[in-house]
Specification:
With 466 residues, the protein is of the alpha/beta class. It has eleven helices and 22 strands.
Length: 466
Amino acid sequence: MAKRKKISLYNIEVTDYAAEGKSIARQDGKVIFIENAVPGDVVDVFLKKNKKDWAEAYVTRIHQYSALRIAPFCKHFGICGGCQWQMLTYRQQLIYKQQQVGQQLKRIGKIELPEILPIAGVDNDRHYRNKMEYTFGNKRFIPREELDAMEGKEIPADHTGVAGFHAKGVFDKLVDIEECHLQSEPTNAIRLWIKEFARANDFSFYDIKAHTGFLRNIQLRICTTGEVMLNIILGEDDEEKRIALLENLAKQFPQITTILYTINTKWNDSIYDLQPQIYSGNGYVTEKLEDFEFRISPKSFFQTNSKQAERLYSITRDFANLTGNEIVYDLYCGTGSIGIFVSPLAKKVIGVEVIEDAVADAKENAALNKIQNADFFAGDVIKICDDAFFREHGKPDVIITDPPRIGMHEKLVIKLLEIAAPAIVYVSCNVATQARDIGLLSEKYSVEKIQPVDMFPHTHHIECVV
């Protein structure tokens, strides 16, 4: 079988921005989607995928930098995959995100749209995440420039015992992070202390290929209330090492309000089928949005940008246009955040969520906020929302839906058309699937308002309320 021809293009001008953080160049009628480029760059590219009308490429050389470029503030940018857009001003990022929302809703939804409201940006584009997960491993990713400089020399000792993130596109090597700007302190101090304590005490770091090693991951949640939760995930159940680590950690960081540990000997990093154990504190933290309190346990889902979550839910509540007489159905309700937010202005809130643990959290959060008019149910919305369910709880006046990235199941869209509630508020973290679903709903519904919300500065991710 003949090898596919390798194609490079030279001195290509990047002219526009496309979805998912890629930029666009055009040559001979072909659209080329390019990674790690900015409109205005003049570049050489290598085509990794080449079709008749389009191609995907990555930059091999930059001849001329765009005037839009700025210096990234993080030394790990470009190697770590956490941020994609630090080379753009935050204002320019918002311009591109606004543009993406309009393009995808029009191109995929194929329906008439009102003018899109200006994107709601953040006040602070650093330290905005309330939750971070760091990985520990025994192989450090060494950038090409460093490898070239090391030619003929021994690999440095810090190659083992690494704490940070997986290198972009590499599953078994980690970028050893000195300072991450996504979460406020003590996030960096805790991660670095654990790494150095483990090195000093000869604790093994996890080997993702061999599936062995003691220190594996940490999950760190820092709330606006000042509460801090740390869950340390260990690859071996070694009581002596565990106690030494946790005792010293608690002494070093008294500001951590609850410490947990989870033993994970599986081949994957998911802890949703495991039970975290409480070492100190009560095993949860409390976050506050407006006057509402939310109890967050280590396996709870909660929006990772607390300040913008407050804005997102506030916009959702405004779009619902409630008068106090409405029955609101909150589909994909998760831990009940949106339903709880709108409950003071609704007659009744009915939340439906397929994950049972999330529904338990939703009920607990409703009780915590002394909310009497909200009920939450576990199960598939397509199966739950039958005639008997409506007879018991009432037909919805407003439906709020906040599905995962894949959007709503086609059967649910059909169900919504059948239910025919007077209003739907659709919250999405993926405008492409939102546009698809809105197009299907256009059989009975027209779009009244659109509000993009930026939850994650320096990334290409966008939330949108329609």
